[in-house]
Amino acid sequence: MNTAAQFTPLSGDTNTSLPGVRIQVENLKKSLGGMEILRGLSFEVEAGEIFVIMGPSGSGKSVLLRHLIGLESPDHGRILVNGHSIESPEVRSQYRMAMVFQSGALLNSLTVQENVGIYLKEHRLQTPNEIQKTVDEKLKLVGLTDIGHRYPSELSGGMRKRVAIARSLVIEPQLILYDEPTSELDPQSSGTIGKEILSLKHRIEVTSIVVSHDPELAIGIADRIAVINEGQIIFIGTTSEFKQTKDPMIHRLLYSDFKP
Q1: pTM recorded for the entire structure
Q2: How far is CA 24 from CA 62, 68, 186, in A?
Q3: How far apart are CA 218 and CA 202, in angstroms?
Q4: Which of 101, 206, 226, 250 is deepest in the core (most CB within 10 A)?
Q5: Domain 20-48+58-107+174-248 carries which CATH code?
Q6: What is the pLDDT of residues 53-74, one digit of tens each?
């Protein structure tokens, strides 16, 4: 699996900006090892929206992400992208999706420049000079310049996450999935990542789905927040509604009483 993207860029052209996509999850069910993990999840994410998914460990967030990225097929239900089933290879080939992994998933043997440009190079989508220009542009978008020659081991945790975001941007994605983007980061770095996610919404109108245990991040960036518990959605609402809810599970989330 390529760590930069799951959906193939249209016609090999990564310079064409396309609008964010609408995602519909309908009655999604999944059992693993005889245990029901997802128990009829349903929600919608509007094009260009930042949708944050929260919940305790074991609630089904990671399994849901694997379905959204196309690594798992549901036992029941479906996922639609702009009204078309994600299960169809023809549909997957029409949209651009990128994943920012919890660890960043950078290759330590490659420089920052090589990490960001790896998808373009592997698929021969651009010339070396064009790749250099694209890499520089994407690193600038996330506030990183003049570090292309450095290796991931020479960067802070926050910088590695921003490099991973830059790598996801080379395909001009219509949907970005973030898996715990602020995990293991200090508050200042977490704030920087949140600003980058919010900035991308306004710059390229990308649809963003963020899985996080960080209520401050969620409240700071989300258009809406969903809370999953035991494979079911127990709350969907705006950040204001999230802060005002009296649900004890959500209250524990808000005050960080459980950890990933």
Answers
A1: 0.85
A2: 17, 10, 34
A3: 17
A4: 206
A5: 3.40.50.300
A6: 998 888 889 899 889 988 889 9
